[in-house]
Amino acid sequence: MIKILDELQLPKGEWVVFGGACLTAHDIRDTSDLELFVTPRLFKQLKEQGWEERITNSTDALYVTKIYHEVPILAFIQCGSHKWVPNVASYLADPVVIDGHPFMSLHEMYEWKKATARPKDKVDVRLIEEHMKRG
């Protein structure tokens, strides 16, 4: 994931990694995609660069996507549900920096996964808790 982030050369301060890639960055589990929160300006730029616009099935969130080195990359301005509304501005303003790249904090990912409580989220909650216990 870090190599892909390096190669994308996205503008600093306009994006932050969230989702499974946060867990991968903390060596908690692997992921098959790369999800980003981006500013409206970067969203527009990516769309103009040919990223495909889509809407999620689960929350009707608008995003742009492309496949890069066989990895799906999804860029959202906002997503969430009635169970959890992410504070994207906060994540962009105060990310956790890992290998030079901005990530949503593991604590925020944990709270998000607990709130949404889908079966895959429940697994991630357990994995995060085990990771935190190990320190």
Task: Give the structure's gist in a few sentences.
The chain is of the alpha+beta class and 135 residues long. The protein has helices at residues 2-8, 20-25, 40-48, 88-93, 106-116, 119-134, and strands at residues 15-18, 34-38, 52-55, 62-68, 71-76, 96-98, 101-103. It is built from six helices and seven strands.
Provide structural commentary.
The chain is α+β, with helices and mostly antiparallel strands and 135 residues long. The chain has one domain (2-106): Beta Polymerase, domain 2 (2-Layer Sandwich). Helices cover 41% and strands 24% of the residues. The chain contains 6 helices and 7 strands; from the N terminus they run H-E-H-E-H-E-E-E-H-E-E-H-H. It has helices spanning 2-8, 20-25, 40-48, 88-93, 106-116, 119-134, and strands at residues 15-18, 34-38, 52-55, 62-68, 71-76, 96-98, 101-103. Strands 1-2-5-4-3 form a 5-stranded mixed sheet. A hairpin with a 6-residue loop joins strand 3 and strand 4. Helix 5 runs antiparallel to helix 6 (119-134). The protein is globular, with a radius of gyration of 14 Å. The mean pLDDT is 94.
